[in-house]
Amino acid sequence: LFSSSFTLVKQENTHKILLGVLNLLEIKFDDSKILSDRKPYQAINPSKAFFLCNTISTLLCPSCHYAFTSSEPCYSLSLGITEEMSLTSVLSFYTRIEEISYESCGGCGKVVSKKRILLEKGAPFFILQLNKFSSLGCVTFPLSLDMPPYCSSSKDMDYELYGFVVHAGEYASSGHYYIYIFESSTWYKLNNEDFDPVDVQEVLKQEAYILFYRRHVIDMNAMPSYSDSSFEMNNEEERLIPLGMIYYYLINFLLLLLTLS
């Protein structure tokens, strides 16, 4: 569908499929006349607008105090899990000040000793992948996630859990995937053809593989629209599609797609 590396007879890693879909949407919208023919405020790529975030890496030289920063866009943070711990502990470890000995200073040429990675720009939807395919204990995760401690900016960085993927099996390329999704103030479990409401206690006991958080401050009514002239209107006016609608169906499509992998 979106990569020659995927086959119909082989089960694929759900995270790999997710990134493949988002990258495909990014490419298709960037190449599409839907964007090229629009006004600047209308030319919004949904894939980038809703999911793309940036991490910023800082190297600090203790000798000359030279600081080098680099930014990298990403659709998800992949977090390594080494033991049973909370999601906030995992994020604290990911954004810690790290002692290194393999980078040279761009100012004086001496070895740089400190490095730190922070989230520079948060997306309306924040995706976290937990790299845990072993017998380690599960990672506990909150319904609300306060991100400012792990960011270079604290503006609009509070999130709430919207859905997550669970993997049953030892390896990412085998086993079974199913999802939990929050809709209309109720949590639901979607497992193959079964779609059942569940209580929050069950939700918090799960071993999540991919977590979807959404920003608290998203105002769907205030989001811009892009125009789609491919539909004929009786009054010959442009049909405006709110990005909030795209956002809603895109997220649910992605979550449903992950259950089929």
Automatic annotation (TrEMBL):
Listed transmembrane segments: 240-260
Superkingdom of the source species: Eukaryota
Database matches in Pfam families: UCH
GO CC annotation terms, alphabetical: cytosol; nucleus
A GO term, aspect molecular function: cysteine-type deubiquitinase activity
UniProt keyword Chloroplast present: no
GO biological process terms on file: protein deubiquitination
Entry-linked InterPro entries: Papain-like_cys_pep_sf, Peptidase_C19, Peptidase_C19_UCH, USP, USP_CS
Residues covered by the USP domain: 1-216
Record carries keyword Transmembrane helix: yes
Entry keywords, A to Z: Membrane, Transmembrane, Transmembrane helix
Family: Belongs to the peptidase C19 family.
Protein name as catalogued: UCH domain-containing protein
